[in-house]
Amino acid sequence: MFSDILIQTKAISRHIEMLDALFKHATEGIVVVKKSGEIVMINPKAKELFGYTDQGLIGKQIETLIPQRFAKNHVRYRDEYLQYPKARSMGHSLDLFAKRSDGSEFPVEVSLSPFTTSDGEFVVSFIIDITERKNQEDKIKEANLEIQNLNAELEARVEQRTRELAKAVKKIEESQQEVIRALKKEKELNTMKSQFVNIASHEFRTPLATILSSASLIGRYATTEEQDKRQKHVDRIKSAVTNLTEILNDFLSIGKLEEGRIQCVPVLVELPYFCTNLIEQAQGLCKEGQKIHFSYSGTSQVWLDKQLLRNILFNLLSNAIKYSENSKPVFLNVLAQEEMISIEICDQGIGIPIADQVHVFDRFYRATNAGTVQGTGLGLNIVSSYVELMGGSISLSSEVGKGTKFYVNLPNMILETQNPE
């Protein structure tokens, strides 16, 4: 029996030696405290961590190893822990700091394990200095922050380059549009040139041929009895020359409009008298039995560009006469108000097909039913441009075989002349 006790004693001694070796050679700091918080044991690694001698901590409160700013709250945390003690780790989600003997601080991780002996209740603390880990974490944080800054800078640069690229693309698109517009304009000009050559050659050829034939025939009628025949050819020559003059005037007007050399200069106009004189001039163009009927209402004095107004009305009246048959009346109706002058030119002529009505103000355009009636297709385009210069508007309504109405609205420019900018 004594031998059994001896064997047990030796086994216990070996266990104690092993535990003592583990305690002394552990790579973690180990501190054992009573329930009251008094330190009763500390291993060499803990002494090394905290910078104390063998007996420098025994008997002192655990708060000695805690920075002063945390010590007061630690007493409360310790008491709360000891009410329900259990093994747990600390510092994984919190930043814990310990205090060395010289007052310096270092970050730690702490694990707690309660145990009870015949001497009472104790808590063993396992302490790891995580300074190097924190340094590495800080370096990682700094690296991440630098990466974030670099990413932000890169994103800003990409955004800036994207904006610059968008601007460059926009400029290229605008340049392309300008080129397209220029090519379109050039195509339009080439088309207009072709139209001009075709129309000019045709419109000039007919009156010139008339002048040439009539001039040749006049010489054959030498006697007094043949005066009527001579006069007939003289009248044909005069008509042809008038027609040529009108064609040339149209071409000259187009050139001046293109160059911006025609300006709107309003003057005081006695409008009823102006219209009456104009009708007398246009009456000479009327066919047999044709008559221009004139009605006027409103104020008599208005402010308009006299020359532009004459060209507008004369062109519309001559068209009404030209595209109407003998004895068909033409109407000129004017309503002059304080701010606006409304003009209607009506005829009972051939009318304009619906498909052609949207194009009648286009340059060189002639309605499909114009037939052999002479014209350059410039008149209404010039009229539209003149109306626009005067700040007005022009529109029409027409029915084939029944006639056409043109509506011209022009602002009374009295306010502009009295209050110039």
The shape, in one word, is rod-shaped
Number of helices: 10
Strand fraction equals 15-25%
The H-level CATH homologous superfamily of the largest domain, spelled out, is Histidine kinase-like ATPase, C-terminal domain
* Rg from alpha-carbon coordinates: 56 Å
Query: Major sheet: size, sense and barrel closure?
Result: 6 strands, antiparallel
Structural notes for this entry:
The chain has 421 residues and is of the alpha+beta class. The protein has three domains: 2-129, Beta-Lactamase (2-Layer Sandwich), CATH 3.30.450.20; 136-231; 264-418, Heat Shock Protein 90, CATH 3.30.565.10. The protein has helices at residues 2-25, 44-50, 68-83, 131-218, 227-259, 271-283, 306-322, 354-357, 379-389, 414-418, and strands at 29-34, 39-42, 88-90, 96-99, 105-117, 120-129, 267-270, 292-298, 301-304, 330-336, 340-347, 393-399, 403-411. Strands 1, 2, 3, 4, 5 and 6 form a six-stranded antiparallel beta sheet that branches. It has a five-stranded mixed beta sheet with strand order 8-10-11-13-12, with helices on one face. β10 (330-336) and β11 form a beta hairpin. The longest helix is centred in the middle third of the chain and has 88 residues, at 131-218. It is rod-shaped and about 185 Å long. It starts with a helix and ends with a helix.
Give a short overview.
The chain is an alpha+beta fold and 421 residues long. The protein is built from ten helices and 13 strands.
